[in-house]
Records
---
Amino acid sequence: MKILVIGPGGREHALARALACDPTVTEVHCAPGNPGIAAVATLHDVDPIDGEAVAALADALGVDLVVVGPEGPLVAGVADAVTTRGIPVFGPSGAAARLEGSKAFAKEVMAAAGVPTAAARVCTTPEEAAAALDELGSPYVVKDDGLAAGKGVIVTESRDEALAHAAGCERVVIEEFLDGPEVSLFAITDGRTVYPMQPAQDFKRIGNGDQGPNTGGMGAYTPLPWAPEGLVDEVLRDVLQPTVDEMARRGTPFAGLLYAGLALTSRGTRVVEFNARFGDPETQPLLALLDAPLLPLLLGAATGTLADVAPPVWKPGAAVGVVMASAGYPASSSSGDVITGVDAAEAVPGVHVIQAGTALSASGDLVTAGGRVLAVVATGGSVAQARAAAYDGVAAISFAGAQHRTDIAAGI
Ligand code: AMP
Ligand code: GLY
C-alpha cells in the first residue's frame, strides 16, 4: 500500500509515523511535511490547500489512500478533488467539513440532531452582539464563526473585551459559558459506522494553570483515569452517532475523523466544538497507545467499509505529549532558532519527538519554523510515569525562547 499524507505539522508526523510502521505499507509520502516527517516519508513540495495539485500528486504517485490532516485543506475541498479522481481519501468533503469551518453551521446541525451543546446566538452586528452578551451573561464566550487555528475564541468577564472581539470578526457565535473539565473524544467514521477512540485531554491555554490566551494546544494525555464510567458510550449515543446520522440525512455524509470537544458540566456533557480532523496535539499520545493497525481504520472510513474493520483497541498504560513552542507564541512565532537535543530526548525510555514547526537551515541545522515547534511524547505504565518521561525529554531539548507548560497532565 502507498499512502500520501497531506499537511505540515505534528498531527501529520504522528500519522505518517504510525502508517510507516504498518507492514502492509510500502511507501509513505507527505506534502509538504517537515524534517521530522522526512525520516518516515518522502516529501513533496505541494501546497496542501491546492486540491488539484494534491489530487495530481496522488495520481502520479499511484497511492492507495490520501490522508488529509489539517482543517484548511478539508474546508477548501481537497478531499473532493482527490475523490473526483477515484482515489480513496480519509477526510470529509468540503461540505461535511463545514462542521468545523462554520461554528454557526455546527450549531444548526447539533440543534437538528438534538445534540447537547451551549445555548448560542449568531451575530453579525455590534448591536446583536451586545444583546446576546447581556442575554447569555458573564463569563462571556465569543467565537469567530470561521477557522482561526484555535485562536478565534475568547472567554472573558469583561463585556468591553467581548464586544471588541465581536467587532473584529465578520460573524460571531456568542455562547453560554460551560463549566467543568474538557475532554477531546475522536471518532473514526465512514458516514454510517462510528468508532470512538479513547478520550484524551488537551491543554489549550499558553500558560500554567490555564492562564493566558488560547493556543492550538500545548499538551495532551490519554486515557483519562478520572473520566466518568460510560462516558464514551454516552457520547457515542448522544453526540457522535446523531451528528453522523444528521449529516447523512442532509446528503453531506461526514466520513473521516469527527472530533468532539466536550465540556463535562454540572448539568451534563455538552459539545464545545466539532472539528473535522484529528486533533493536534491529542493525536500524538493517542496514536502512541493505539494497539491496532491504523491503516485499516482509515481505509475503512475512506471506502465506506468501516463495519468490516475491527474497532480500535488500546495498549494499557498512558501517553503524555508536551508541546514546546517558539518565542512569541501564540501572538507571533519565531523562526530560525537552532533546536538541539532531539536525539537526547529520544534516548529517554518511552519517549519520541513529533515535529511540527521545524525546518532545516541552509547549514543543515534543525531550526524553529512556526509557533508550536514540536511535541515530546512519552508512554508509561500510568499517566504520572508517562508525564515524568515526557518532561525528561523536554529537559533535553533547547532552542532560544522555547516555551512549554510545566503542568501538562499534572496531578492525574
Ligand atoms: P473552540 O475553538 O470552540 O474549541 O474554543 C476554544 C476553547 O475555548 C475551548 O477549548 C474552551 O476552553 C473555550 N470555550 C469555548 N466555548 C466555551 C464555552 N461555551 N464555555 C467555556 N469555555 C469555552
Ligand atoms: N487540540 C485542539 C485542536 O486540535 O483543535
---
Amino acid sequence: MAPLDPIAVLKFGGTSVALPECWDRIAEISQAHIRAGRRPVLVCSAVSGVSNALEALIEASLEEQHPPLLEALETLHEPLVARVGNDARVALKEAMQALEKLSTGIALTGECPPRLRARIMAQGELLSTRLGALLLAEAGISCVWMDARQLLDSQQGAGDQHYLSATCRYDPEPGLQRQIQDAAAQLVVTQGFIARDEKGDTVLLGRGGSDTSAAYLAARLEAERCEVWTDVPGMFTANPRLLPSARILRQLDYSEAQEIASTGAKVLHPRCLLPVRDRRIPMHIRCTTRPDLEGTVITARPDRHGATVKAISDRSGIVLVSMETVGMWQQVGFLANAFDVFKTLDLSIDLVSTSETNVTVSLDPSANVLHSEVLSALVKKLEPLCQPQIIENCASVSLVGRGIRAILHQLAPAFELFEEHRIHLVSQAASDLNLTVVVDQSQSERLVRQLHALLFKDGSSAAILGPSWSELFEPDIEIERATVPTPWWSTARTDLLEAASGQTPVYVYDAATLDRQAAALQSLQSVDAALYAMKANSNPDVLRRLRAGGLGFECVSTGELHRLLEVFGLEIFETGPVLFTP
Ligand code: ADP
Ligand code: ASP
Ligand code: MG
C-alpha cells in the first residue's frame, strides 16, 4: 500500500468563502500545500451572513413571513454563482427548493423543533462547499466534495439539545485517512459546522463550530497541521476590531489559547482546541487576505515567557444570579441544594464567587437558553434556600495568561482601574490562567481599552508579541493615541496628591487638555461654530481657556448669561458667538 501523504486540514470561515476572489486565494493557499507534498482537506463555513439569514428564515417561517428571507439567501450566493455559471445555478436552485419546502413546513405546523432547525442551518455549509468545489475546479484544481456527515459522528443521541450543539468522536480513523488518500483528486472539500448522530440525523456543532469541525477532522485524519483561515491574522491581545492597538500573539500553548477562546475571543470556537491538543497537532491562525503574515501558532510548547498577561477578552450578555445566604453560613449542603436547582432547570453555571454570606454565579447565554420564564422559575425555586437576585446585562472581562497568580502584584494599577467600575463578581481560575471580573455591560468596552493601554504599553518588545492591527492594516494612523490618550492625571499624580493634601474635595482641571480639545474641535471642517455648553462647568478659568481656544458659549439659563457677563464683560455678547436657548 502506498504511504499516506501528510494531511493539512484548512478551515475557511464565512468571510473567507464569500466572494469569487476569496476562492482564488483558497486555490493559491491549497496549491502551496500541494507543492509541499501535503494533501489539503478544506473545511468551509457558510458564506458570511448566511447562517444568520437561515436563523432569521426559521423565525420568519414561524410567522409565515419567509419569502423575503429566501430571496436574501439567494442574493448572498449570487456573486459566487455568477462566476461559475450553469452548474452553480443548478446547485443554488436545488438548495433554495429544499429550503422553500422546509420553511413552508414550518409555516404550516407553526413549529421548528431542533432536529428540523439543524437540517435548515446545514444548508448554508452544504451550498457554500458545492459552489466552492466548482470554483476550485475552474481554477484548475481537481477536488472531491465530501459530505461532512459521512466524516464526523456525534457522540450523544439522547435529548434534543444535541441537534444544535453536538460534540463528536475524534479518535484517529485509518479507514478515513485511506479514503482521503485514495480520492482521485488533489484535495477534498467538506463542510464545517455539521455532523451526523447515531440515527443518521444531521446535527450542528454550535454557532461558530466550523473551527471545531476542522479540529475533529485533523485529529481523525492525524493531520500534520490544522490551519484556521479567517479575517484576522491571528489571535490578538484583544479583539483587534475593537482595539486596533491590539497586537498579534505569535505563539501560544493550547491551554492559553483555550482560555482566550473560552473567555470570549470569537476567533476560535472554544471546543476546537481539545482535539488538536490531544493529538498534538499544531493549530495555525492565518488571514485569508494576507497570507504573507505568519499569524499565530498554537502548540504544546512549554511557555518560555514566564508569567505575563497575554490577552484581554470580554464576553457580553452575561446574567448573574446573586444568592444572599445570611444565616446559611456553615450550613451543610447549601451549595449542593442551590446548584441542584440550576441542574433541574438545565442551566449551566460558568463563574462562581463565594463569600460567607453570598454566592454569586454567572450564566453564559451561549450555553444556556435564558428566557424570562426560565429566570423567574429559577428565582422561585431558589427562594426557599436564599434571597436570590438576577442581575442582567453584564459582561465579563478576563485577563488571560499563564501564572496570573504570580503577577497579581504587577496588576495593582489595573485594580485601581477596577475601582472606577462596579464589579459584580471576581473569579480567579483554579488553572491559574485567568482573572475575570463581571461588570455592567455598558462598562466593559471601556474597561478593556483601559486595561489594554495599561498592560500592553506601546513598544513592549516581548518576543511573542507581533505587530499591532493598526501597524498591519492602517500604518499611517496612530489609532492608540487618537482613541486612548494617556490620561493627564496619571502623569500629574504627585501634584494632584499634593493639591488634595490640604483640603478635600479639590477640583483640578488640566489647561493643556482643554487647549488640545478646543483645537481639535476647531479643526473640524464640517462644523461652522463650536459652542461650549456652559452647564457642563462654568468655572471662570475654564471659560477663559475655552474662549482663548476659539469656542463660543451655549447658555440655557439667565444665571449662565450672568456668569459670562461677570467673566468677560458685555463685550462677549458682541463678539460671541453666544447662543441662548432658554
Ligand atoms: P470566521 O467567520 O472566519 O470563523 P469569526 O468572525 O468567527 O471568523 O472570528 C474572527 C473574528 O474574531 C475577528 O474578526 C475578530 O473581530 C474576532 N476576535 C475577537 N477577539 C479576538 C482576538 N483576541 N484576536 C483575534 N480576533 C478576535
Ligand atoms: N456557519 C456557522 C456559523 O456562522 C459555523 C461557522 O461559521 O463556524 O455559526
Ligand atoms: Mg468563527
---
Amino acid sequence: MNFGHFDDANKEYVITTPDTPLPWINYLGSQDFFSLISNTCGGYSFYKDAKLLRITRYRYNNIPVDSNGKYYYIKDGDSIWNPGAMPTRTSLDAYECRHGLGYSRFHGEKNGLAADLLAFVPVDTPCEINKLTLKNNSDAAKEISLFSYVEFCLWNAVDDMTNYQRNLSTGEVEIIGSTIYHKTEYRERRNHYSFFTVNAPVDGFDTSRDDFLGLGRGNNNPIAVEEGKSRNSVASGWYPIASQQINVTLAPGEEKEFVFLLGYCENPKDDKWEAPNVIKKDPAKKIMEKFAASQQVDAAFAQLNAYWDELLSRYHVESQDPHVNRMANIWNQYQCMVTFNMSRSASYYESGTGRGMGFRDSCQDLLGFVHLIPERARERILDIAATQFEDGSAYHQYQPLTKQGNLDIGSGFNDDPLWLIAAVAAYLKETGDYAILDEMVAFDCHMEKAATLFEHLRRSFEYSRTHLGPHKLPLIGRADWNDCLNLNCFSNEPGESFQTTGPSEGPVAESVFIAGMYVKYGNEFAEICRRVGKEKEAEIAQKAVDEMYQAVLDAGWDGEWFLRAYDAASQKVGSHECEEGQIFIEPQGFCIIAGIGVKEGLAKKALDSVKERLDTKYGIMLHQPAYTRYYLNLGEISSYPPGYKENAGIFCHNNPWISIAETVIGRGNRAFEIYKKTCPSYIENISEIHRTEPYVYSQMIAGRDAARHGEAKNSWLTGTAAWTFVNLSQAILGVQPTYDGLSIDPCIPEGFGDFTLTRRFRGATYYFDVKNPNNVVKGVAYLEVDGKQVKGNVVPVEDGKKEYHVTVHMA
Ligand code: BGC
Ligand code: IFM
C-alpha cells in the first residue's frame, strides 16, 4: 500500500495523506542550522548541535506522537485548521506534503481557502524560512485570522527536559513589532539568541504558552485561536513561545503571502556588554532584511535548488531501471548528505541528546559523501582523527559543537581505529590530496599532543596489529561493528555487562569481522605507505595483513561459513556448533570484501550459506537462529527479543556488504536481488508493513522471528545510506575511484541493459556509456576513451583534460 508517490522530475516524494503509518520526515539545512520536519509540520530546529543548541522544543514519547512543530492555525469562521493537518487534525478538503531536497511543501485546503507552506533553510543563512501563501478560491470575500506557533527550547535539550526547578524561572523574551526574540541564557553571557518574525504588521502576539493555549488545553485547541484573539502575553519564566496573530481579508481569487523566519544569532565572542540581558539585534536585523520580501525568499529557494542540482550532477546514472535511477540520482545521495551532517545525533529515533557524532559511524558516512563535497569530508576527517587516543584507539563518539570526545562512552570498540583508514583511503582516492596526510591533528582532542594525520593512520593500524588474541585474530574489546556483541562479559549485574578485568580469561574475545576489516584496510594502509614512499613500512604492514589472512583461514572458518568470533573463554560464536547464533552476516560480508577465501573457494560457500540461512523476503538477517534467552557471555545482543535489532533483525547496513561480496565473486543477479530487497523505492508499495519513509533507508527491519516481520525502525540515520551508495555506484554499476583514476567494472543482473553514467572526479567530468550486447553480468572487454581503445578498467588521467567520453564494452 502507498501513502504517496515519487515525483522524480521535481526530486520530491509526495505524501497524499496526513495519516502515514509513522511520521515521515525530512531534513532542512545543509551546514549549521538544521530542522527536522514531518509530513504534518512536526519537528524542531537546532544550530550545529541538537543537544547543546536546541532552538525549538520537541517532546519524545508524546501523545499524540509528533505533536510539536512550527504550526500555522487558520481561523476561518468557525473552522480552525492547519495546512499540514496537525495539530488540530481538522479534516481538510485537500492535503499534500512534498518532501524535497532540503525543503518541504505543504498544501492544505478547507472551505475554499488554500494554504501553501514552503519550509526551507537557505544555504548561507542560519534561519528557517516559512513562506505561507493564502488564497481565497471561493466566490465570497473571507476574513480570517492567522496564528503562528513555535515553542522555544531552553537551549540545552537535556536540561530542558529535566531541570525544571531552574528552567521554569529562566525563560525571557522581548517583543519588538512583529518580532519575538527568545533570549533565555543571554543574561549569563551565552551570547546566542533566536527570534521568530513575520514580514507583516501583527494584530496580536503571545509569548507565554499557558496564556496562548489556556491551561488544560493542548496545542490542538489553543484558547487564543478559538476566541480569535491573541493575549499579547509576555513570557517570564515558564514556557516561552512565539505566536503572531494576523487578520487577513481576502477578496474572491485574492492571494496573500507571508514570510515567517526562525533565526539563530550570535555576537562576536569577545563582545563585552554592560547590560547583559539587552540583546544586540544587528545580526537578527541582517537576516530579517535579507528575507523581508517574497522575491528574496524565492531567490533563496532557487539558490537552494541550484545547490542540490550542482551536487547531484557529480554522480548521475541513466539506466532502464527507474528505481535505480531515482535512488542513485536523488534519494540515496540525499540521505548520504543527511547522515554526513547528523551522524547518529538527531532523528525521530535518535533524541539528539545522546549519540552525537560516532567515530565509526561518521567514518562510514563519509564513504557515501566524499564525492559530493570533498572539502567538507576533509574537515570531518581531521575532526574525527582528533578524537583518537595516542595508542590508536578512539573515543567512540564526540559532540558536534565542542568536538570533544564523549567521556561517558569512552573507547574500547576495537573496530573504530580501522574505520579511520577506510575514510582516509576513500578521501585520497576521490581527491588525490595527499597533503591531508601532513596535517597536524590532535590526539585525545588536545593540540599539545598533535601529530600528522599519517601518524594517526599508523597508530590505527598499530593498535589493531598489537591487539590480537589467542587465535591471532583481533581482540574485539567492548564490541565491534555490532555494538551489542559484548563478548568480554563477566558480570551478571544489570548494567554491568562489561568489565575490563574479570576472571582469569581476561578480555581476550576475538572478532573475525575485525579480521576482515584488518585485511581490507590494512591493505589500504600498506598502499598509502607505498604511495607516500614509505616502502619499508608498507612491507611490514603487508606482512601483518598476510598473516591475518592466514589466521582467518586457520581459525575463522567454520566449514560452510566464516565464524563470527571467539568469546572471552575462547568459545566459538557464530558456529554450527553453537546452540543459537550459528551464522552471522558480518564476517561473510567483510571477509569476502577483503578478498579472504575467494581464491580458496570459500567465498561462494559462505555466500550460499547466507542465502540459505539468513535470507528473507525483506532482507538478510544478522544471524540465525535468534537468541531466545539472555547469554552472559554474549551480552546485549541477547537482550533484544528475537528478530529485533541486533538479535537477528535485518540490519540494512550490512546487507550491502553481502551484495558487494556477491559482486566480488561475480554474481550480479544475486547482488542485485539483495540490493532490491531493502531498497526504499522497490518496497514503496509495502509501506503499510514497512511503515517508515519509503524514500530513505532505515537502520533495521524486523527479522523473521519477530511478530512484526518486515516492519522497519530508526529511519534516516544509518550507515546503510553510505554503504548502499557504495554498493550501487561502485560495486554494481562499477565506477570506482582509485588512487590512479576512475575504474569501471560493472556487475549487473541479466537483462539490466545498457546504461550511461556521468561522474565528476578531480575536476573533470567522465561520461560513461556502458554497452552490454551479450547481456553478461560482469566483465569489461575494453574501454574506448575519446575514441581510443584502452586495455584494463582504469581511465588514464591526462593533465588538464576536463572531459572524458568513455565507452565501456562489457563482454
Ligand atoms: C545498538 C543499540 C544498542 C546500543 C548499545 C547501538 O548501536 O543499535 O541497539 O542498545 O548500540 O550502546
Ligand atoms: O555499528 C553500529 C552503529 O555504530 C550504531 N548503530 C548500530 C550498529 C550495529 O550495532
